[in-house]
Specification:
It is built from 4 helices and 4 strands, in the order αβββαααβ. It has about 160 residues and is an alpha+beta fold. The chain has 2 domains: about 1-50; about 55-160, Tetrahydropterin Synthase, Chain A (2-Layer Sandwich). Strands 1, 2, 3 and 4 form a 4-stranded antiparallel sheet that branches. The N and C termini lie far apart (about 120 Å).
Length: about 160
């Protein structure tokens, strides 16, 4: 009889050891799962919202020498290239899709300018800002979306020439 009691104590001790180890492993795995899930949720939105992917969008390729009439129609502006630094890929794609509307808007803007309103540093900065406002309006990157729109204009003027 004592022998049977010893065997049962060994079996129950062994079973309690297996149950204890199984519970410890399950609790450890559960804790790790919740920790990883919590860590991923808190860091992912910060990375997505803080990442603005800057890229370049080319409207007039270098060497294209696009011409635009100026106010009065007696002179033309020759633009060698026009490139934008944009805050998102979506803005760059939107510029590509809306190229005809953007080119028309730039032409209308330049038709209101005389050479003196383009060929001095302050006026050139004003023109670039007007281009940003115009294109952001056409592409829809205004208000809260403005940081994802046009950030900088790179305009290379080749000449102002008589017609």
């Amino acid at each position: 009889m004592a022998e049977n009691e010893n065997k049962e104590k060994k079996k129950s001790g062994f079973m309690s050891l297996i149950i204890t180890i199984t519970l410890a492993v399950m609790i450890s795995m559960g804790g790790t799962y919740f920790l990883m899930k919590y860590m991923n949720k808190s860091s992912t939105p910060q990375n997505v919202t803080n990442k603005a992917i800057r890229t370049m969008a080319v409207l007039i390729r270098p060497g294209s020498n696009a011409t635009f009439p100026l106010r009065g129609g007696n002179q033309i502006l020759v633009i060698d290239s026009l490139t934008f630094l944009v805050g998102s890929k979506e803005c760059g794609q939107s510029i590509g899709i809306n190229t005809p509307q953007i080119m028309d808007g730039i032409q209308m803007l330049l038709l209101s300018k005389s050479p003196s309103e383009i060929l001095n540093p302050d006026a050139l900065q004003t023109l670039k800002q007007q281009m940003i406002d115009l294109i952001d309006q056409i592409t829809g990157f205004t208000g809260e979306k403005a940081p994802l729109g046009i950030l900088q204009v790179y305009l290379y003027i080749k000449a102002v020439a008589p017609v």
